């Protein structure tokens, strides 16, 4: 009876600890022996020392594996210390079993609290999606998500979390491209709201991850129209709140010099593209009636007349991170002829 209860309890342990196979192998002879007398001797309190030793060995093996399981469960998740007194859980060494993860997460939080850790960053790749509700149940909060993972955070100290929030802005760009005939490169989008059907606009789009403003502007113009360009400067930018996904929006308008003339429309996004005389572009009702578009167009015309100078892209390296960055600014007392008359 005791042996059967022992077996039942042991078989309920997780497979991941490798107990079920070992236990079945060690005791299979005891339960499947064709000799009833052998089984009786094993279960009795007789003096058959050989049988008793077998049971004793199995019990020791069982206890050893139980201790191993407890030790495994008490281990913390593999992690790195960050420079702000927090923890970054190693996403490459996560346990795949939800029960093991739950136990290790609880143990980890206890140890990190004792050690005085602060913010915890837990990145769960998509293949570990079943671990997400376990982390949320322990108090983790969603931070952000990408195609391949979900990032969750946990703030240990009392009071509001000091961890940086998710990205708050999206960045868009638009390109004013004008040729030597005083024609502006314009497009009509294939998909737009009914009020804007037929509106000719400059090429626009969103900056991609790890992309510069100036390279993103050149890329968007190329993708939508097939025109190669050289970025000159930022002539203006707009900052708006509560845009797509309730994020703030930064929109940079650049001036570009065309390097080619043949238009090749991207028929996935663009309905039509052409070179439009600047005077016709300005006369469009959408521009004349919209204060924002009107102002941007006025700035562009002033820039063409050398009565305005925008922000040039300058590459600088900061000692704070030893990385090259792009700083956009207007040079005072510049000898650049493009800024004469400013």
Automatic annotation (TrEMBL):
Coiled coil: none annotated. Residues 168-298 form the Nudix hydrolase domain. GO terms for molecular function: ADP-ribose diphosphatase activity; metal ion binding; NAD binding; NADH pyrophosphatase activity. CDD domains: NUDIX_ASFGF2_Nudt6. Keywords: Hydrolase. PROSITE patterns: NUDIX (PS51462). The keyword Nucleotidyltransferase does not apply. Belongs to the Nudix hydrolase family. PANTHER family: FI03680P, NUDIX HYDROLASE RELATED. This is Nudix hydrolase 8. It comes from Spinacia oleracea. The lineage of its organism: Eukaryota, Viridiplantae, Streptophyta, Embryophyta, Tracheophyta. The gene is LOC110795397.
């Amino acid at each position: 009876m005791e042996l059967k209860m022992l077996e039942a309890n042991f078989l309920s342990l997780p497979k991941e600890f490798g107990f079920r196979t070992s236990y079945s192998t060690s005791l299979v002879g005891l339960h499947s022996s064709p000799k009833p007398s052998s089984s009786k001797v094993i279960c009795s309190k007789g003096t058959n020392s050989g049988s008793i030793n077998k049971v004793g060995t199995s019990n020791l093996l069982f206890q050893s594996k139980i201790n191993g399981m407890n030790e495994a469960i008490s281990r913390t998740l593999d992690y790195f210390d960050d420079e702000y007194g927090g923890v970054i859980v190693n996403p490459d060494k996560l346990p795949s079993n939800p029960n093991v993860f739950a136990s290790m997460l609880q143990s980890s939080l206890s140890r990190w609290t004792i050690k005085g850790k602060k913010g915890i960053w837990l990145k769960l790749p998509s293949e570990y999606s079943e671990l997400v509700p376990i982390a949320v149940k322990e108090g983790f909060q969603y931070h952000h998500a990408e195609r391949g993972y979900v990032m969750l955070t946990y703030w240990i100290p009392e009071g509001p979390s000091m961890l940086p929030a998710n990205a708050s802005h999206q960045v868009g760009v638009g390109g004013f491209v004008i040729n030597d005939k005083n024609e502006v490169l314009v497009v009509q989008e294939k998909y737009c709201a009914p009020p804007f059907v037929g509106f000719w606009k400059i090429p626009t789009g969103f900056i991609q991850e790890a992309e510069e403003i100036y390279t993103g502007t050149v890329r968007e113009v190329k993708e939508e129209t097939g025109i190669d360009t050289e970025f000159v400067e930022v002539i203006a930018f707009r900052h708006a709140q509560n845009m797509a996904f309730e994020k703030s929006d930064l929109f940079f308008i650049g001036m570009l010099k065309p390097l080619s003339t043949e238009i090749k429309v991207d028929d996935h996004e663009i309905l039509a593209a052409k070179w439009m005389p600047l005077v016709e572009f300005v006369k469009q009702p959408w521009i004349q009636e919209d204060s924002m578009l009107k102002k941007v167009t006025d700035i562009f015309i002033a820039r063409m007349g050398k009565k305005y100078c925008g922000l040039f892209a300058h590459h600088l390296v900061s000692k704070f991170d030893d990385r090259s960055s792009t700083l956009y600014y207007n040079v005072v007392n510049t000898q650049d002829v493009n800024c004469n008359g400013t």
